[in-house]
Structure formats: structure tokens, C-alpha cells
Specification:
163 residues, three-stranded antiparallel beta sheet, elongated, 26% strand, alpha+beta
């Protein structure tokens, strides 16, 4: 699951880290690009020594370069991280965007509410934190099942303080 509590249960402060799912790690990316390059070059072996090779080679290389660029772009846009810190009196969410911008939200932990919009949000089971007159999203990049589990997990952790 692409979120985890980075502190032990009942620790103070409690900290949760959330990140988007990364389906292609660095070594998988390298292996995929090597395999794609190799498989794209196999048909060109038959064209060695002909003028047709020079006509097709630029298009094959452009296709591989476009694939490389698309995968790198996808990897850069997935460099999002959210860190939720819960101490005795404060709930604080720090969201770091793919461009490195940091967005910060904090609230009195006692008044913090976790809300889930089943159908009304931009994604199904949209989870937000509300307090101090603001409502902020958390984990919008997670899958539906992960957002449902996140909602239940956050509700349980915030209830521990109130109860």
C-alpha cells in the first residue's frame, strides 16, 4: 500500500507518509528500455548494407526516444509526497508537488475531521481533512480501495486522541 505510518503505534508524534504507486522501478525501466531497443533493432539486421536501413533507422530511434521521454515524464510527475503528522495537539499535512512546491496545512487535532465523499469528489471515495476553516485533500492519487482504507485508518487514529 503506498502509505505507511513511519512511527510505531501510540508514538508521539505519529507520522504517516503517502506516495503514488510506482509500477516501474529504476532497474525495471532500464531493462524495459534495453529490451525495447533490442527488439526494435532485430528487424533492421536484415536491412544492413541497404539504403532502406537509413530510411527506417531515424523513425525507429525517434519511437524509442519518444517512449523514453514519456516514461521519464511519467516518473517525474509521480514524485509527489504527503506527510501527515499527528501530535498531542496538532494535525499537520505537508504536500510536496512533483515540481517541488510545498503546501502546508495544520489544525488543532481535536477539531480535525476526516471526511470521505463517495461520489461528490473529483475521484470516487475522495478523502479530505477539515479544520481551521479549510478542507484539504489527502491521498487523491491512491486507488479507490486504498482511499477507503486510508479513511478508516485516519478516522481510527484521530478517534484515539478524542476518545
Amino acid at each position: 500500500m503506498p502509505y505507511e505510518w513511519t512511527t510505531p503505534p501510540r508514538a508521539n508524534p505519529q507520522q504517516m507518509r503517502l506516495w503514488p504507486h510506482q509500477s516501474l522501478p529504476a532497474h525495471g525501466f532500464a531493462a524495459f528500455m534495453l529490451a525495447t531497443f533490442t527488439l526494435a533493432m532485430i528487424p533492421l539486421i536484415a536491412l544492413l548494407g541497404t539504403v532502406l536501413l537509413w530510411g527506417l533507422l531515424p523513425f525507429v530511434i525517434m519511437a524509442i526516444a519518444a517512449l523514453y521521454w514519456a516514461l521519464q515524464h511519467d516518473h517525474r510527475t509521480r514524485q509527489i509526497e504527503e506527510v501527515l503528522t499527528l501530535d498531542d495537539s496538532t494535525a499537520r499535512l505537508v504536500h510536496t508537488t512533483a515540481k517541488g512546491e510545498v503546501k502546508d496545512w495544520d489544525c488543532n487535532r481535536y477539531w480535525t475531521q476526516v471526511k470521505k465523499y463517495d461520489d461528490d469528489g473529483p475521484v470516487p471515495h475522495y478523502v479530505t481533512l477539515r479544520g481551521e476553516g479549510r478542507e484539504v485533500e489527502i491521498g487523491a492519487f491512491l486507488s479507490e480501495e486504498e482511499r477507503i482504507a486510508l479513511f478508516e485508518d485516519l478516522s481510527r487514529h484521530l478517534r484515539q486522541q478524542k476518545g
